Amino acid sequence: MNWFVWRQHRKQFLILGLLLVAFAALVIPTGLSFWHTYQQALTACAQNPATPSCSDLPGNLFQSSLDQILFRLVPVSVLILPVILGMFWGAPLLAKEYSEGTNSLIWTQSVSRRKWLTIKLAWILVATVVFAGAFAALSTWWSNTPNALYLDRFNGIHFGSQDIVPVAESLFAVALGIMVGAWFRKTMLAVGVALGLSIALVLVVVPNFVRPNYMTPNTVTSPMGPGAIDAKIPSGSNLLLTRNIVDKNGKTFDRFNSANLPPQCQQLIEDQQVSNNGHSVQVMPGKIGTGSIDACLNDAGYHQIAKYQPASRYWDFQDIEAGLYLVLSALAITATYGFVLKRDA
Amino acid sequence: MSEIAIQTKALGKRYGSFWALENCSIDVPVGSVSALVGPNGAGKSTLLKLLVGLSSPSAGESDVLGKVPAQREEFLSDIGYLAQEIPLYGNLDARDHIAMGQHLNKRWDEKFIIDRLQELGIPLDRVVGKLSGGQRAQVALALALAKKPKLLLLDEPVAALDPLARHDFLSSLAQAVADGGLTVVMSSHLLADLERVSDHVIVLAAGQTQLCDDIETVLKEHKLLVGPKEHAQNLGDGVDVIHETHTPKQSTLLVRLGKGTKLPAHWQQHEPNIEEIILAYMGQAKEMNIGGTR
């Protein structure tokens, strides 16, 4: 049985192995070079703190378009890996057997259906963890430089492309694909549904709507004024959730609707607009038009409020999210057993 | 009474509210080659899938080689099954399939299958997706036979084959049966082919068993009667009319006679062939079915 699963799937293992080698060939030299450049800049700035570029290293280092492309390409490759695996490994695994009828060939050899399924699943799921682990390890190591420079590893594409989350996401996407294939029994349909579901869940719903809520966020408030609220958030790789302006009743101010402002402040904004040759003035948290408008809003009881998950929770969030995906994977696998063993061939 | 390989009692399979197979009771003796015939949708594939444990019954029970069909190793190792679509892994070659059989079966005759495929001139190193339909059917049959099964269930294996490939396939099958110890149930539409290889017949129609007996008995018990129409209602006990056609004066009846039944004198007797008998049973089911739906 092991031999046969290997024989059936060795080509897909080989293809992903080649992709892994290509990824390593991209990531290892650039990762070394970025880290070297960054360390050199830090050393230089330690010796001559007055150098102008030292006040804003993120804005001065790695400005070439090639570097900028790499800073997106590497995390995005690992971010979409779960979707790719779910689509090419997960969905066809059982759907292809069903749609080509080979399930009735393999299920009438002298191996029970349960044993066949268990061995097949074990191979694919273990291979998923091994390969996704290798990709994630490379991406995590490579991200040392951007993590230190931009303090953004808790955010969007970076959180999902480093450490254990991408591995758990991959496991889930593959398990989901397998389950969808066992349900629909048609390869192309299963691939399409698995693709749609994994994009929706892994790339949209969990990062944007689930992840922010694992723990109660920290809340800080500040008076109006440029940078006032940012000064209240401790520096570090935080996950910033919201930054708003609220009125004296605690109601969030909609920055696109300045009609809600007190009349005296509204007048200031209109005056400002005229002096700006008609360009609008946006009342935005953190950076607001002019000192006089800020003062007016402060007098009217307006203030800024921000919610964030502090950098110290990074690993808690990695663990919680990985745990969530593990539970979902277990559910998908359990359902797969039900679909395969309980339903007729 | 010879030993029984397959026995089903009131076996039924329902999909939603539709009974694909209903009240099916058959006995298949060990060593027989049974032809499973019936019109499309009669439940032939359903019955075979139930017998090999690929699907589970909604009603009734079955006993196959002394066991209840299930997806368990000890049951499967005695059964060879070939599904209607002749499934093989299109991107693997025959050698891979042979190795699969080797790894997935405790009992496996590797020499047999390699010799056999070489004898048939089937290239072992070409992916089976590139073989002809006849060659694929031969590979699939050889795989089923290499398990050294006690029971072989074949679902319309020759349906998609050209006459020559069909002939070769049936010869292979006949040879395997001649080697001994094998019970075969094979479904097909091609009555003439079945007649060549089988000694037992099961007619399924409208989801029910119409006939299940060995061909010799079937031939002995069925008569084609030709006689005056006015006597058609009055045949006496022990005579079952399977099929009747009438002209204004004359009736032609296909009847089954119970043991020791004597026929009224004014009927001309003819011996029907097996094809006529099978068609009569299928026709009877069709009429019943139409009557039922009205």
Could you describe the 3D structure shown?
The complex is a heterodimer of chains A (345) and B (294). Chain A has 345 residues and is mainly α. Chain A contains 13 helices and five strands. In chain A, the strands form two sheets. Chain A has a three-stranded antiparallel sheet with strand order 1-5-2. In chain A, strands 3-4 form a two-stranded antiparallel ribbon. Chain B is an alpha/beta fold. Chain B has nine helices and 14 strands. In chain B, the strands form three sheets. In chain B, strands 6-7-8-4-9-10 form a six-stranded mixed sheet, sandwiched between helices. In chain B, strands 1, 2, 3 and 5 form a four-stranded antiparallel sheet that branches. In chain B, strands 12-13-11-14 form a four-stranded antiparallel sheet. In chain B, a hairpin with a 2-residue loop joins strand 1 and strand 2. Chain A binds chain B through residues 1-4, 7-8, 100-115, 341, 344-345, and chain B through 49, 52, 54-56, 71-73, 76-77, 79-81, 83, 85, 87-90, 92, 96, 99-101, 103-107, 140, 143, 147.
Compact summary:
Chain A is mostly helical. Chain A is 67% helix and 7% strand. Chain A has helices at residues 2-47, 57-60, 65-100, 102-106, 113-142, 144-150, 156-159, 165-184, 187-210, 228-232, 263-275, 291-299, 314-342; strands at 218-222, 239-246, 283-284, 287-288, 303-309.
